[in-house]
Specification:
The protein has about 100 residues and is an all-alpha fold. The protein has helices spanning about 5-20, 25-30, 35-45, 60-75, 85-95.
Length: about 100
């Protein structure tokens, strides 16, 4: 059976589209570099696994244990977040939580 060239081109285009949708956005796409350093660290750190949460979701005192637990999950998935980046992200969450 011969596949029409148009069908092959359509399948290739669809594969490229799906691959583009499946990739995670870069930190620069999520967080422009002109943000304060702690906020940039928060967006870069948290968007490595999921869309960043609104810091007002939790009380300031609740963010450190939650972020520490999420950092462990990221480590288990071989996602490397430097300790100083994690600490900056937690500082921002604590400063902006409820």
């Amino acid at each position: 059976m011969r596949v029409a060239p148009a069908a092959t081109a359509f399948a290739a285009s669809l594969a490229v589209l799906i691959a583009g949708l499946a990739r995670a956005p870069s930190a620069e796409e999520v967080a422009p570099r002109n943000l304060p350093p702690d906020q940039f660290a928060f967006l870069k750190t948290c968007s490595s696994c999921h869309p960043p949460f609104d810091p007002r979701t939790l009380k300031r005192s609740e963010w450190r244990p939650v972020a520490t637990q999420m950092h462990q999950r990221a480590s288990d998935r071989a996602i490397d977040v430097p300790p100083e980046q994690l600490e900056a992200a937690i500082r921002w969450l604590e400063a902006n939580g409820r």
